[in-house]
Every structure is written in C-alpha cells, then in structure tokens.
Specification:
The protein has 12 helices and 23 strands. The chain has 421 residues and is an alpha+beta fold. The strands form 6 sheets. Strands 16-15-10-11-14-17-22-19 form an 8-stranded antiparallel sheet. It has a 5-stranded parallel sheet with strand order 3-2-1-4-5, sandwiched between helices. The protein has a 4-stranded antiparallel sheet with strand order 6-9-7-8, with helices on both faces. The structure holds adenosine monophosphate and glycine.
C-alpha cells in the first residue's frame, strides 16, 4: 500500500508517524514533506498546486491512497481532480471535494449551511462593496466587540475582533473597498461575539458514518497568557478537562449529527475530516468555524492518543466501512509545545542550523529542511514536541524537556501551555 501525504507541517509528520506504525505493509511518500518526514518515507519535490505534476507523481510512484493535510489544495479541488482523472480513478483520497471544502473556503457558505440545518452559531450578516453602507449601518446597530470575517481563505488572518465602533467601520471599509485580504475579503461576514472558552472537535466521515476523534484545545496567540498576534497554533492539549460527558452529548446531538445529516441532505458527498471550532457559552456549544481537515498542532495530540491502526481507519473511511471501526483512545493526556522562529508570526529568518537531539519519538518537525545532510529551519513553526502522561503536568514537563534538547538561533516557545486548565 503506497500512501501519499500532502503537506509539510507537524500535522503531516504526525500522520506519517502514525501510518508508519500500521500492521498493513506500507510505503510512505510526502509532498513536499520536511526533514522529519524524510526519516519515514520519500519526500517528493513537486509543486502540489500543479495538479498535472501531482498526477505524474501519483502514477510513477503507484500511489493507492492520498491523505490531504492542508485546506488550500482541497478548496482548489485536488480531490475532484483525482476522482475525475481516468488515470487516477482507482486512487482513494481522504479529503472532501471542492463543494464540501467550501465549509472552510467560504464563511458565508458555512453560515448558510448552519442556518439551514439549525446548527448553533453566532447570528450574522454578509456584505459586499455594493452594500458597504448597509454594513456600516449594521455595525452601528449592534454592540461590541465586533467580529469581522473575510469570507475566503486568508491563511488564518482573516478574522478581526474589534472593540471600538469607528475602528470596526474603518476595517470594514479596508476589507471591502481596499481589499485588505485580497479577493478573500470581497465579501465580509459580520457576526455576533460569542463569549466563552474554545475547544476543537474532530470528526472523520465516509459520507454515511462518522467517528469522533479525541477533542483538543489549541493555543493560538504568540504570547504567554494568550496575548499578542494570532499564529497557526503554539501548542495543544487533549483531552479537554472541561469537556465533560454532558457537554460532549450536546456537541454530538446539536452539532455533529446535524452536520453529517446536513451534508447528506444538501447532496454534498463528503469524505474526510471535519474539524469543528467550538465555543462553550454558558454550557452550550456554538460553532465558530468549520475546517475541512485536521488541525495543526491538534493532530500532534489527537493521534498519539488513538490506539487503533490509523491506516486501517483511513482505508475503512475510503471504502465506506467506517461503521465497522471502534475507536480505542488512551485515557492519558497528550500535550504538544510548538517552537517557532524568532519574529514569527511576522517576518523571520530561514536556513538557520538546528542542533541537538532532533530525532526523538513524538518530536514532530514542521518548518525544517535537510541541506547538505544538515537540518536547517525552513518556516515559522519549526518543531512540535508531544508527550503523554497521566496528568497535564507530567505530560507538559516531558514535552518541554524534550524540546529543550533542540536549539536554533532565535528559537521561541510559550512556557505557559495549559495555564488556563
Ligand atoms: P476563525 O478563523 O473563524 O477560527 O476565527 C479565529 C478566532 O477568532 C477564533 O478561534 C476565535 O478565537 C475568534 N472568533 C471567531 N469568531 C468569533 C465569534 N463569533 N465570537 C468570538 N470569537 C470569535
Ligand atoms: N490550530 C488551528 C488550525 O489548524 O486551524
């Protein structure tokens, strides 16, 4: 079984690590991968946005299963391309087609989907340049904080939460008129502010059945105490202590089941992961956003807790047999701490030498590259150190200890992951 993992982050390294433990014989390929994935399989030097290159590579390497990590190729139709290509007909893809991927690719599509299927979320209105004045009036009619979202993909930067009315109005003008987020902010969703604590829910579906993977919580801000700019994620913890049985039941009945049913009702043939960003508002779950993939760094704490053969789960999904899978999850806590390049999430240097004990089990690599047999930094988020333990404290202390065995100039990580739990 030849498996191709698309992407190059800690999430993709964790996918590969878990698949490499499968009892089903397999050979792993990554496109483009990183220095860590090179220890598990073959990194393909191809441009994943070039579907023709991808087709050639899939054929040449006899790939049987494609697992898509990030959202961009899904939103651009990588699954549709493989499904509709005569040469690739027999290849299984984990990841929805374009239509389903709009749940992440368009905020207004996701809001309309939730409205149609009675899934709890913040009230909203959407605006384009032609009704900018209505948008400005709408802002005047609601109370702060104001939540403005660019409709399209904006690399995690398209959400603004603003306290002052004048600033919110200026931002709406910036987004619609001055294309602050390019074509992603041609349409803007303004929604009500939800006050509560966030958590992430991960569902895998074959279109009919679904399994709910372990819940996780991530830490998005660069600074300690959740301060400063938003990042892709600076750390994560699973399970989430405040997510008790009662709350999980509410999530399953009010959100997960209506989502899966809604997809069917709308004739959206969805096969893949759904990552639901949730917020607990006074004991009730609300959806903040849908993503059509796994989270990064949440994957690095979700997969180590799953005892099942992950490749078996993926094949069951591809063959519409997910109902036969019974998930076996470790009761242990998993935590991951992300180390980043100095300056991230703004500008940072690349190509810095990485020294120390790099190849530790559960230390996943992200922005790394092998150059002349040495490992150098190649991105904002560089390593994601995961550890398991019977308490958050024990897991944290192991994860930090392992991360500190690695060094590169300017390396930064938050020392307070889990501080709020
Ligand atoms: P998103 O890209 O939709 O996940 O939004 C990024 C972050 O903005 C979320 O993780 C939340 O912290 C915050 N956020 C988004 N929508 C809301 C909302 N309606 N109320 C409060 N916070 C929000
Ligand atoms: N950690 C958040 C995400 O993957 O979108």
């Amino acid at each position: 079984m030849n498996v191709l993992v698309i992407g190059s982050g800690g999430r993709e390294h964790a996918f590969g690590w878990k698949i490499s433990k499968s009892k089903i014989p397999n050979k792993l390929f990554f496109a483009p991968g990183n220095a860590g994935t090179e220890n598990l399989g073959i990194n393909l030097d191809i441009d994943i946005s070039n579907f023709k290159q991808l087709e050639n590579s899939i054929v040449r390497n006899n790939i049987n299963l494609v697992l898509v990590g990030p959202e961009v190729p899904l939103v651009f139709g990588i699954s549709d391309f493989i499904h509709s290509n005569k040469k690739l007909e027999k290849i299984n893809v984990i990841g929805p087609e374009k239509f389903g991927a709009m749940l992440e690719g368009s905020k207004s599509f996701a809001k309309e989907f939730m409205e149609r299927h009675n899934i709890p979320t913040a009230p909203y209105k959407k605006f384009r340049l032609k009704n900018l004045n209505d948008g400005l009036d709408y802002l005047e009619s609601i109370s702060p904080p104001y939540v403005l979202k660019a409709n399209g993909l904006a690399a995690g930067k398209g959400v603004l939460i603003i306290n002052e009315l004048e600033k919110a109005k200026n931002s709406l003008v910036e987004m619609l008129k001055n294309k602050k987020f390019g074509s992603a902010s041609k349409e803007v969703v303004i929604e009500g502010f939800l006050d509560g604590i966030e958590l992430s829910c991960f569902v895998l579906t074959d279109g009919d059945s679904f399994i709910t993977l372990p819940y996780a919580k991530d830490y998005k801000r660069i600074g300690e105490g959740d301060s400063g700019l938003n990042t892709g994620g600076m750390g994560a913890i699973s399970p989430v202590p405040f997510n008790d049985k009662d709350f999980k039941n509410k999530i399953e009945n009010k959100i997960i089941k209506p989502t899966i049913k809604g997809l069917k009702k709308d004739n959206i043939d969805y096969l893949g992961f759904i990552f639901i960003g949730l917020i607990n508002v006074k004991g009730e779950p609300f959806v903040i956003e849908y993503n059509v993939r796994m989270g990064d760094p949440e994957t690095q704490v979700v997969l180590p807790r799953i005892k099942n053969d992950f490749l078996e789960i993926l094949l069951a999904t591809a063959n519409n047999k997910l109902s036969e899978i019974k998930l076996d999850v470790s009761p242990n806590y998993a935590v991951t701490i992300v180390s980043v390049s100095g300056g991230y999430p703004e500008s940072y240097e690349k190509g810095l030498d990485v020294l120390g004990d790099i190849d530790q089990e559960l230390v996943f690599q992200a922005g790394t590259l092998k150059k002349n047999n040495k490992i150098v930094t190649n991105g904002g988020r560089v390593f994601s150190s995961t550890a398991l333990g019977s308490s958050i404290k024990i897991a944290l202390s192991k994860a930090y200890k392992n991360l500190k065995k690695i060094k590169f100039k300017g390396m930064y990580f938050r020392k307070d992951i889990g501080f709020d739990l």
